[in-house]
Write a structure and sequence with these properties.
It comes from Dethiosulfovibrio marinus. By secondary structure, the chain is of the alpha/beta class. It folds into two domains: about 170 residues, NAD(P)-binding Rossmann-like Domain (Rossmann fold), CATH 3.40.50; about 180 residues, Dihydrodipicolinate Reductase, domain 2. Helix content is about 35%, strand content about 25%. The N and C termini lie close together (about 5 Å). About 45% of the residues are buried.
C-alpha cells in the first residue's frame, strides 16, 4: 500500500498513549479516537501521547459507529476491557462497518474456548463485511509464539509449564478489579474464587451462555493447543488470592489495600490433551510491593528440557508494540475472527506499516 495506514483508537487510557505514538512512529496516522470517560472526551490525542497537538479530538464512544462508518480507517485498535462481553459492542461496530480491529483484551486472544457464541457472531459479521477481528499483545509473543517456537526445537514433549506475573497498576482500574485487588479474603472467595468451584458440565454451560469468566491463561492454553495441533480433553482453572504482609497503596484503585487483603490473584490453568501433553500455566496479576517486578518463566519438559526466563519485561510497551506490529497481519488476513495462531509469527517492522500490506 502506497499511502499511510489510517488507524482509529477505541479506548484512550494508559495503553493508548503507547499504541497511538507507536502508530505515528511506524509511519501511520490516527484518524479517530473514542472513549467513555468524560475527563478524556474532547482532548486532542496529542495531550494523551505527550506530543504536540495532532488535530484529532477524542469523541464519545457513542459516536464510534457513525464516525467509523464515515471515515473508514484501515484498522481500529481497541484498548478497553479484558473480557469479550465488554468488547462485543466495539468489535461489532467495527465488523458492521467492514473495519479491521485488533485488541489488547486478554480473552480476545483465543475466545473460542470461553465465549464461543459472541465470537461466532462477530466472526459471521466480519466474514460478511470482509474484515478481520482479533486479539493480540504481550501474550501473543511471550505466552504464545515464543513457547511454540521452543516446542519446534523439542523432540518429545511431556509437559509445558508457564508462569508470568504483572503489576495490575500498569493497566487501569478494570483489570485491577477483575483480579480482585483490594478485596478482603472472604469477598474474594465469594466474588472471584467461587466462580471456578464448579463441575466441567457447569463450566461448559456457562461458556455456551457466554457467562464464563476465564483467567488470561485459559485462553492462552487454548491458543497453544491449537497452534501445536493438540486435542484438548479437559481444562480447569483455579483462582488464588495474593496478599502482602503490609498495606499497599494502589493509585489505580485510589485506595490503600490493608495488610492481608487481596492485592490481586494467581490463576492456575491445567489442560490435559489426547496426545498426553499437559499444559499447566499460571498468571499472577497484583498490586506490586516495592521489591516486586514482572517475570515470565516457561519450562518445556521432554527431550530435551528447556527453560526460558525473562525478568523485568516492559510488559506495557511490549503489549502495545505487538499490537501495532500486528496491524499489517490483520489487514492481510482472511475475513472473520482470526486468532494469531493462524497468522505469521510476529515481525519487527523496520519500514512504515503500509509497506507490509499486500
Amino acid at each position: 500500500m502506497e499511502r499511510k495506514l489510517r488507524i482509529a483508537q477505541f479506548g484512550c487510557g494508559k495503553m493508548s498513549a503507547y499504541t497511538m505514538r507507536y502508530v505515528y512512529e511506524k509511519g501511520g496516522e490516527i484518524v479517530a479516537a473514542f472513549d467513555m470517560n468524560p475527563a478524556v472526551i474532547g482532548k486532542d490525542i496529542g495531550e494523551i501521547i505527550g506530543t504536540g497537538k495532532k488535530g484529532v479530538k477524542v469523541l464519545p464512544a457513542s459516536e464510534a459507529d457513525a464516525t467509523l462508518g464515515s471515515i473508514k480507517p484501515d484498522a481500529c485498535i481497541v484498548t478497553t476491557m479484558s473480557l469479550m462481553k465488554d468488547l462485543n459492542d466495539p468489535f461489532m461496530i467495527c465488523a458492521k462497518n467492514g473495519i479491521n480491529a485488533i485488541s489488547t483484551c486478554e480473552e480476545a486472544f483465543y475466545p473460542w474456548n470461553s465465549s464461543c457464541k459472541i465470537t461466532e457472531e462477530i466472526d459471521d459479521l466480519a466474514r460478511e463485511k470482509g474484515c478481520t477481528i482479533c486479539g493480540a499483545g504481550y501474550q501473543d509473543v511471550f505466552w504464545g509464539n515464543l513457547i511454540a517456537t521452543l516446542a519446534g526445537a523439542t523432540h518429545t514433549i511431556k509437559k509445558i509449564k508457564g508462569k508470568s506475573s504483572y503489576n495490575v497498576e500498569d493497566y487501569g482500574i478494570a483489570l485491577a478489579q477483575v483480579h480482585g485487588a483490594g478485596l478482603d479474603l472472604e469477598t474474594f472467595a465469594e466474588e472471584i474464587a467461587a466462580a471456578d468451584d464448579i463441575s466441567d458440565e457447569e463450566r461448559k454451560a456457562l461458556i455456551e451462555k457466554g457467562e464464563f469468566l476465564p483467567s488470561y491463561m485459559w485462553n492462552v492454553n487454548g491458543w497453544l493447543c491449537d497452534k501445536l495441533g493438540l486435542t484438548v480433553v479437559s481444562q480447569t482453572q483455579k483462582c488464588i488470592p495474593q496478599t502482602h504482609s503490609e498495606e499497599l497503596h494502589s493509585t489505580t484503585l485510589d485506595m490503600t489495600i490493608p495488610a492481608g487483603h487481596a492485592t490481586g490473584m494467581s490463576a492456575l490453568v491445567t489442560t490435559e490433551t489426547k496426545e498426553g501433553i499437559t499444559v499447566e500455566t499460571e498468571c499472577i496479576g497484583k498490586v506490586y510491593a516495592p521489591d516486586e517486578f514482572d517475570c515470565n518463566d516457561w519450562i518445556i519438559y521432554g527431550e530435551p528440557d528447556t527453560q526460558v526466563m525473562i525478568n523485568r519485561p516492559a510488559t506495557v510497551e511490549l503489549t502495545c508494540a505487538t499490537i501495532v506490529n500486528r496491524i499489517p497481519d490483520i489487514i492481510n488476513a482472511p475475513a472473520g475472527y482470526v486468532t494469531t495462531d493462524r497468522m505469521p509469527n510476529n515481525s519487527y517492522r523496520i519500514r512504515p506499516l503500509n509497506e507490509y500490506v499486500s
